[in-house]
Structure formats: structure tokens, C-alpha cells
Amino acid sequence: MAGFWFTEKQTDHFGITMRVNQTLHTEQTDFQKLDMVETEEFGNMLLLDGMVMTTQVDEFVYHEMVAHPILNTHPNPEAVLVVGGGDGGVLREIMKHDKVEKAVLVDIDGKVIEYSKKYLPEIACELDNPRVEVKVDDGFMHIINSKDMYDVIMVDSTEPVGPAAPLFERGFYQGIYEALKEDGMFVAQTDNPWFKADLIQKVSRDVREIFPVTRTYIANIPTYPSGMWTFTLGSKKYDPLAVKVEEIPDLPTKYYSPELHHACFVLPKFVKALVE
Amino acid sequence: MAGFWFTEKQTDHFGITMRVNQTLHTEQTDFQKLDMVETEEFGNMLLLDGMVMTTQVDEFVYHEMVAHPILNTHPNPEAVLVVGGGDGGVLREIMKHDKVEKAVLVDIDGKVIEYSKKYLPEIACELDNPRVEVKVDDGFMHIINSKDMYDVIMVDSTEPVGPAAPLFERGFYQGIYEALKEDGMFVAQTDNPWFKADLIQKVSRDVREIFPVTRTYIANIPTYPSGMWTFTLGSKKYDPLAVKVEEIPDLPTKYYSPELHHACFVLPKFVKALVE
């Protein structure tokens, strides 16, 4: 069989490895190394700085779990901001919610958008939706310059190294608080509890100091380190745990469901201990 | 840094890789290849036929999740059988339940027991408990020769290749039904939904045809394929979903909790579709 084996060292001592049939595109952008490859197990796969960002086979988990818990909690999410997320997967899920009138996506790297449209078309499929505005810009600065503007903000960033490092700082969460309307809420991907327990602990503490409601939830993503991913949600008013299951719409999803809306917040004991 | 990188190909095209500092023991037993190695990330690790069975760092998830959901469902689990499980991890969790008067462990390979005691002492720590009887024997035959004997049976097997293959057949589940008392129940590890969807579907269907109550639940185990593991439970009478959270004891665990007892049965949509 042609191709080669790609390995991502997820820690200094542990990694995943997969067969790559061919490299579709490789480029050092202004911000990061971008590789788009075709894998045998997971379809086309986007790598940034050698880390798996998304694959055609398992992308639905991450994208659904960023978008739906928060959009099914806020009663009227008209104005939504996505920081990062240039592949368009989170936007695709947002567009399933009719209440969203306008979704702004701010990704620092236009090349991610360009090559996602080309090689991940079923992920990037809503980037040209008339309800969507795409800006190639610094998400941190966009947040700092926005006041009282958004109902919901989703932070779909890379790992806390490279261009996304400022997106895990307390100042960023304070900026998000000010960019949100008086009943706004946000969610951010916050890595995994097996290898990044310190990060989760720090982010959860920072968000708790700023937002009256702070919640952590989890999802299984096979191509992400440890397979267990956390999301941290901060809210000025609405609590995802107060939503009634029977009032959650049954959207066309493959992972998220009304029942899972509550179950995903029930954390294994060692994870719960990190965020209390 | 000394050592080498061990890689388990979890499918033909995907695997995990980790740094091994040293090999502690390696042997072709009468049944399988046994390797005990010291890893940098996960501590000591037991491999059978090149597949990760357990590691010191993440073993608690699997062992707790085999033992506690079922033992906190059956009101009087006096007689318990473990098929496989020679490392002793499931037994250690069973011994946390005072209601268990006798736990029989039947593993086909005495070498697994011997080297787990030597290199995984905190996992194997209850193998000599007076409430435990260890038999080096064929678990399939033990089941076939047992009638109306056990309250709870736990199948802690390897993957459905090699010596454990018969443990995934319908005839085995029929044998379990007959080995159980009139209100007995069993649980088996049933691999992952990302790469083994067909197996989960088949096992669930087989168990449903035999047991009036059939349930599937999941847990996150970083060193197992995809990080998401399923367990299939068959019961003649008691339903784990009927257990009241406030009646579940808060045992000394690191993953399982009374709240998780219910949440772990809420399956992602694509997994739920496999078992309905």
C-alpha cells in the first residue's frame, strides 16, 4: 500500500499514528504550518503545526459539541461569534439553529478557510451562507474591540501553543465577558484531562472568577489526545443544566442529542475534582 | 532517553505509540504472547498479543466501570464470577462491596496472574483476599458447567481474537444466562463503536434475544482504541436505570460516581443507533 505513517506526539511520550495515502497540500502560512492529508482511516485531515485539527470521519463530535449545548441553552442566540474555526465545522452546526440571525467567524489564518473549502467541503459547506460573515483577523483583537455585541461566543481554537496561546489567558475571558450582551454566554474547547489537567483547572478557575455560571462538559473524539475532550462554558445568566430535555429540539446530529445535553456535564470523578 | 517506542496498530491504518523505558518480562504462554513493559507516560503496562490490556495510570477507569454499575444495581450480589481479568483489577473493585461474599475468578492463563502480581501489585492487590477464589481454567467451560450459581458475572476478556473469541458468541451468553440465578445479571466489555460497530451491534442483539433487560454504557479509556469503550449488560430482572442515585454508595473511586451511574448509559446518537 502506498503512502506513509503520520505520527502526532500528543505528549513527549505518547502519540497516535495513522496511515496517510497522500499529502494534498502543505504550506507554512503566516501563522502556522498547514498540512492537508488524505488518511486511510479518517478521510481527509487538517493538521496545524503537526496537530490533528479535524478529520472527515470524526469531525462531527467536536463541531456538534461546541455548538449545540450552548445554542440550546441561550433562549435567543441572535448574534453569534466564532473565534477560530476556519474549517467551518462549528458554523455548519450553528446554521442548524434558525434563531441565529447572524454568525461572525473570525479566524486569523485565511489559508485554513481556503484549504478547508477545497479539501473538507462537507465541513466548510456553510461558510458562504448569507447569515455568515467571515473575517480574516486576529480573534483576540476582535474580542477586545467588541462591547455588548454578542449573545453567544464560541472559541474554536488550536492548542494553547502558537497563535492560540493568548486565547487561554484570563484577560481573554474578561474581554469575552465585555463583548457579550448582558445575558450572553460563551464556550471554549479546553483540551483533555489526562495530559492537560493543569490547563483545565486554570481555565475553569479563571472563568469562575468572571462568570456567575461556569460549567464543564466532555465528549469523545478519537483523534484528539486521550480521546476525552473538555469544553468550558461561562454564562452571565442561563445555565445549561436548567434546560428541560423535552424543550430541546431534536436536530439532525450524529453525536449530540437532547438526552446527552445533560449527561455530557456529568464528569468522571477525577475530572470533576479539577473544576471544583 | 533510553528505551524504544511501542506501537499498537488498533486497526490496519491507525494506532497508538508510546515510549517504553524497559521490558520487564516477555513470554509466549500456552495461550498468548505476554509482555510487561515500563512506559514513561502510563507506568507499567500489560500487553497480550501486542494489545494494551491495562496500564498503571488509566486502569482505574476500566476496572471501576466493569464492577460498579452492575454491583450497584443487583440488590444482593453475594456470589460473583469474573471470567478473565487475571490482572486482578476488577476483583479489587468488587472487594469494595461488602455484600459480595464470594468472588470466583477464572482466567485461562495463569501467567497473567503471576506477572500481574509481580509488576502490577496495586492492581492485583486483592487476588489473595479470603473472599476470592482464583481458578486457572477455561472460562467458557466454567460457564457451561455452572447452573444457577451466580448473582453477577463479569466478562473481562481480551479482544475477540485469540483465546477470547468464543466469549463473544451467542452460545456463551446463553451459557451465562443458565449460570446465573433467577434474578442474576452480567456485564461484558464489548470494544469500541468507532472501529468495531459491527461487533457491538451483534453482541447487543444476541444479549437482547436472551435477557429481558439489555443496556449499553460507555467510558473513556485513553489507551484503548478510540478512547471510547462500551460495556454490554444483560439482566434477568434488575435494571441499572431504575436505581435511585441517592441510594448508590459513594465508594472510593476515581472515575465512577453515583451521578455517572446514570450518565454513562446516555449514548451518543451514533452509538445508540447501534444498540436499538
CATH topology of the largest domain in chain A: Rossmann fold
Task: Please give the count of helices of chain A.
Answer: 8
The main pleated sheet of chain A reads as: 7 strands, mixed
What is the C-level CATH assignment of the largest domain in chain A? Alpha Beta
Order of helices and strands of chain A: EEEEEHEHEHEHEHEHEEHH
Which structural class best describes the helix and strand composition of chain A? alpha/beta
The CATH architecture designation of the largest domain in chain A is 3-Layer(aba) Sandwich
Q: Tell me the span between the first and last alpha carbons of chain A.
A: 49 Å
Q: How many β-strands of chain A, per DSSP?
A: 12
Name the CATH superfamily assignment of the largest domain in chain A.
Vaccinia Virus protein VP39
Overall mean confidence score, pLDDT of chain A: 96
**Oligomerization category of the chains in this entry:** homodimer
The pair of chains with the biggest contact is: A-B, 40 and 40 residues
Going across the biggest sheet of chain A, name each strand in turn.
8-7-6-9-10-12-11
How many structural domains can be distinguished in the coordinates of chain A?
2
Poorly predicted ranges of chain A (pLDDT <50, ≥5 residues)? none
Anisotropy-based shape of chain A: globular
